[in-house]
Amino acid sequence: MNALRGSRIGGVSYEADTDKDLAPRQVTRFACPRGHEFGVIFAVDAEPQDTWICRKHGVTAVIVDGKPAEQQAKPGRTPWDMLRERRTISDLEELLDERLALLRQRRELENEVT
């Protein structure tokens, strides 16, 4: 095995942080229902979650500073919406006419056989 003795895969970076500009960060405080608070570091432009799992107790902690973010209901995309992203109405009308013509041909052949 060619691993460094005493190290974990992906556990520690051996790269030095000197001469690197870190992104601006903020600490968001969370309160554990078992009575303690802890902080989680986020980027300044990131919107923190409302809840976080407490590492000490394994329970869900809630945000202390800041208001919980409002959940914005994003309307679901329907199959029609996805189809409209790929095709224009005129393309769809042309495809519909082609398929209807094929169905009419098949129906005429079935009527001739019976």
Please give the structural blueprint.
Elements: E1 25-31, E2 37-43, E3 51-53, E4 60-63, H1 79-86, H2 89-113
Antiparallel strand pairs: 1-2, 1-4, 3-4
3D architecture notes:
- This protein is α+β, with helices and mostly antiparallel strands and 114 residues long.
- It contains two helices and four strands.
- A four-stranded antiparallel sheet has the order 2-1-4-3, with no helix packed on it.
- The chain starts with 24 loop residues before the first strand and ends with a helix.
Helical percent range? 25-40%
Number of strands: 4
Distance between the termini: 75 Å
Order of helices and strands: EEEEHH
Shape: elongated
* Mean pLDDT over the residues: 82
Low-confidence stretches: none
Range of strand content: 15-25%
What radius of gyration results from the CA coordinates? 29 Å
Strand order of the largest sheet: 2-1-4-3
Structural class: alpha+beta
Major pleated sheet: 4 strands, antiparallel
Number of helices: 2
What labels describe this entry?
29% helix; elongated; single chain; alpha+beta; 4-stranded antiparallel β-sheet; 114 residues
Task: Briefly characterize the structure.
The protein has 114 residues and is an alpha+beta fold. It has helices at 79-86, 89-113, and strands at residues 25-31, 37-43, 51-53, 60-63. A hairpin with a 5-residue loop joins strand 1 (25-31) and strand 2 (37-43).
